[in-house]
Amino acid sequence: MQDTMRFQGHIPAASEREDADQRLLANVRPSDWQNPKADGRYNLVVIGGGSAGLVAAAGAAGLGARVALVERHLLGGDCLNVGCVPSKAIIRSAKAAGEVARAGQFGITAREVKVDFAAIMERMREVRADLSDYDSVYRFRKLGVDVYLGEGRFSGPDTVEVAGQTLHFSKAVIATGSRPGVPPIPGLEEAGYLTNETVWNLTALPQRLAVIGAGPIGAELAQSFHRFGSQVTVFDILPRMLGREDADAAEIIRQVFTSEGIEVQLGVQIKGAHVDGGAKRIDFEADGATRTVTVDEILVAAGRKPNIETLNLEAAGIGYTKQGIEVDDTLHTANPRVYAAGDVALKYQFTHTADATARLVLQNALFPGPKKKVSALTIPWATYTDPEVAHVGLYDWEAEEAGIPVETIVHQLTETDRGRADGTQYGFVKIHIKKGTDRILGATIVAPHAGEMISEVTVAMAGGVGLKRLSTIIHPYPTEAEAIKKAADAYNRSRLTPTIQRLFGWWFRWSR
Question: How far is CA 160 from CA 46, 171, 340, in A?
Answer without folding.
Answer: 10, 11, 15
